[in-house]
Amino acid sequence: MNRVILIKYGELTTKKGNRKLFINTLYNNILKKLNGLEVNIFKDMSRMYIEYDNKDEELILKKIGQIFGIHAFEVAYKEESNLDSLKRAIKELLEINFDNQKKYTFKVETKRSDKSFSNTSLECNNIFGSYILKEFPNLSVNVHQYDILVNVEIRHGYSYIYLNEYKGLGGYPVGSLGKALLMLSGGIDSPVAGYLAMKRGIKLDLVYFEAIPHTSIEARNKVIELAKKLVVYGNEMKLIIVPFTKLQEEIYKNVDGNYSITIMRRMMYRIMEKLVKRFKGLAIVNGESIGQVASQTLTSMNVINNVTNVPIIRPVACFDKLEIIDISKKIATYDISILPYEDCCTIFVPKHPIINPNLEHTLEMEKRINYEDLIKEILNNLKVITISNLDDDKYKDIL
Asked: How does pLDDT run across 171-180, given as a tens digit for each residue?
């Protein structure tokens, strides 16, 4: 019997007239993810099918489980659409996967998209259920609480038989809804925000603000490790390293200490707006969570956002810290994020940062800094690293 991996689209099926675009994006993402493996991928408007070398099955299943836009997937047997062939396939599948000395309950679920097939779905359920009971005395039917779900999909040309399915990541294929730039610090929140943004189909490039010698090379390497965790879900990203030292020092020399974080964030957004244009993005993504720190009150956000018209997406804005931590552990960024290397947002933090800044006072203090020239200098000295899912440990500097 021929084994194939059957991909179910889930949310993509709601897209109607745009469905083809989403399916093609998913198809290309799977091709990139499985690059170097012997696979053939076929697609239609309701399913995708991957033919593969059996020795690679475990690796392929792992990689598919890291791709957004997939509702569910399963290893299926591809058979000719006739009752005898389907019965033989069901028997072999059950013999391979279950001990015939143990007792199990089962249910058969048939979906018949090929209406020319001579039996209805309900008739097929009864035919295959009766066959299983005859061939496997240790099995009994329970349609409500079952150990084994035998799925039969009767489609035009061929049918597919499989057991319990794997749950996919869901969402939309990365790149199907444009590109944004993620403000990636070394903390817990921003990698989670990036993961959630990608789940909604957004392709990301990453931006890291560093202030050497106040931040360390270890802090940069920490961010690179976080980027390597995120790129698993996105195939390839640029990590843009922003030399923020001079501008940050000017802020802390010339403005009221309690306003330093507010003005620092405004400067970051000015830079982000220019980077979005340079790297052809459509929005800024960050890990801000309402009320978590002084710069993340609604008043602070309003004053800080005042410097840009670029849309700002905050995927974790309404999550509490424990919810964010749970996701960070799921995507394997938590242990990296808690490494003790400070970033720009945690150095020089005043004892009492203002939580309700005044815009007019903020503008007056910014006049003390020649920030436009400093931003031009920063943009002329960016370092850009390409992080690839296909080549984890070799990065190409783009100067």
From this structure: 999 999 999 9
* Residue with token string 């170097």: 36
Distance of CA 366 to the CA centre of its chain: 38
212 and 131: one domain?
Answer: no
End of a domain among 124, 149, 170? Answer: 170
Instruction: Give the CATH number of the domain where residue 345 resides.
Output: 3.40.50.620
Alpha helices in the chain (DSSP H): 19-33, 57-64, 83-97, 121-135, 189-199, 217-230, 245-254, 260-278, 298-305, 321-330, 334-337, 359-366, 371-379
Give whole-number Cα distances, 159 to 78, 85, 111, 318, in Å.
6, 10, 10, 45
Q: Tell me the whole-structure pTM to 2 decimals.
A: 0.91
**Residue 345's pLDDT band (cuts 50, 70, 90):** confident
- Do 30 and 67 touch, CB atoms closer than 8 A? yes
Measure the CA–CA gap between 177 and 318, rounded to whole angstroms.
22
Region of 310 please: left (phi>0), alpha (psi -120 to 50) or beta: beta
The pLDDT value given to residue 293: 82
Q: What b/e string do you get for 156-192 counting C-beta neighbours within 10 Å, with b at 16 or more?
A: eebbbbbbebeebbebbbbbbbebbbbbbbbbbbbbb
Contact status, residue 44 vs residue 111, Cβ threshold 8 Å: no
Contact 336, 226 (CB under 8 A): yes
Q: Smallest Cα–Cα separation from 243: which of 372, 344, 370, 369?
A: 344
Asked if 39 and 148 sit in the same domain, the reply is: yes
Kindly report the CATH number assigned to the domain that includes residue 67. Answer: 3.30.2130.30
